[in-house]
Amino acid sequence: MKPLAPALLLFLLFAMNGCTAMPSTSSPEDLTRPQTQYDARIVDPESGSALTVEQLAQRLAGTEVVIVGEYHGHHGSHLLQSRLQTALYRQQPSQVLSMEQFNLDHQAELDQYLKGQIGEAEMIEDAGAWDNYRASYRPLVEFARRHHLPVIAANAPADIVRCVGRKGPPYLDRVPEPVRQALPANPFMDTPAYREKFADAIGASHRGDSTMNERMENTYKAQLLRDNTMATRILEARARFPGHQVLHLTGTFHSEDGLGTVALLKKRAPDLSVAVISPAFWPATDSAPPLEQNRTNGDFLYFIQPLPDEFKDPEREREAMAARFQRSSSKTCDE
Q: Is the Cβ–Cβ distance between 115 and 70 less than 8 Å?
């Protein structure tokens, strides 16, 4: 009898032991539990079923605007965004990448890079790219550049947002006309649910303090300026590139629960098809299952591991926050 070839023998051994080596069933918890900081487990919140990136892209193939919320700097968010970008492109090559991470007043510098007129280091400096650009967003921009896809600098100018947060909406009257024309016609369009969510997020305990109320109101108006600008820039991209699917990347607060940018986008274009993919941390923070806690956050969810705590020492945290505030306050709004 001729001996079995090693490869065939290995196959037969695997087949006989398959039931123990590869369990045929997995619990819903196993399917949605991320294993590393790079891992993102996609779930359909209606059915609770897990999806691959390719299956998600197939579900989104006919959607006009796909919005992926992120936790800024989380490896799982950014890896998922890159994989989804590629998978969506295979379904619909006419694609636009829209990014909160670039401000509209730097669109020209971003375009120069996409056309090969400046290098990456020049673009990062000239376009005001975020500090984590190379680690988090380079793969997405490079995919767009290599496939000759438009990239939209979707956010409001940072200095204007900052000064609206300090001085309030009247500050826009002092903005140069060319920049003002690039901002939305109704820059502070609002929704009640978003206002309530924002107040809860930054501290409802200060609502009785008139000074704090004014500060909160101006800060909220600055937030609305961001959201209205991103919604408008998405619609402008749709008009400029008819038939293209827009993939928009943003912090999850701007998109989860269908609020923020998403709600304002739908107010401006009620017939537009929009899908929101929202992140959620696993494990849950309380006794409720993670899916039940986050079911309404988006049309689809992706579970990722929590980020490490930045601080354990409250005093060091206060010092770090004070230093960040001082850096952001170094520029004046009175010029």
A: no
CA distance 108 to 178: 14
At 259, the amino acid letter reads L
pLDDT of residue 288: 61
DSSP β-ladder status, 300-304 and 41-43: antiparallel
Given a contact cutoff of 8 angstroms between Cβ atoms, the answer to whether 303 and 92 are in contact is no
Tell me if 162 sits within 8 A of 324, measured CB to CB. no
* Amino acid letter for position 221: K
Whole-Å CA distances, 290 to 44, 45, 144, 303: 13, 11, 34, 9
Percentages helix, strand, coil for the chain (3-state, rounded to 5) are: 55, 15, 35
User: Tokens for 49?
Assistant: 């079923």
Non-local (6+) Cβ contacts of 175 within 8 A are 160, 183
CA distances from 45 to 36, 37, 148 (A): 22, 22, 34
DSSP letter for 206, please: G
How far is residue 69's CA from residue 248's CA, in Å, rounded to a whole number?
Answer: 9
DSSP code of residue 70: E
Residue 331 has pLDDT above 50, yes or no: yes
Sign of the alpha-carbon dihedral angle for 60, 302, 239, 265? positive
The pLDDT value recorded for residue 326 is: 66
268: nearest Cα among 185, 212, 170, 206: 185
C-alpha 65/C-alpha 98 separation (Å) is 10
To the nearest whole number, what is the mean pLDDT of the chain? 88
pLDDT digits (tens, 9 = 90+) for 186-209: 999 999 999 999 988 887 544 545
Strand ordering across the sheet containing 41-43: 50-51, 41-43, 300-304, 274-281, 65-70, 245-251, 95-103, 151-155
**Is the pLDDT reported for residue 228 higher than 50?**
yes
Terminal-to-terminal C-alpha distance of the chain: 93
Distance of alpha carbon 291 from alpha carbon 303, whole angstroms:
9
What kind of fold does domain 30-307 have according to CATH? Rossmann fold (3.40.50)
Nearest to 64 by CA among 194, 259, 247: 247
In the chain, where the domains are located: 30-307
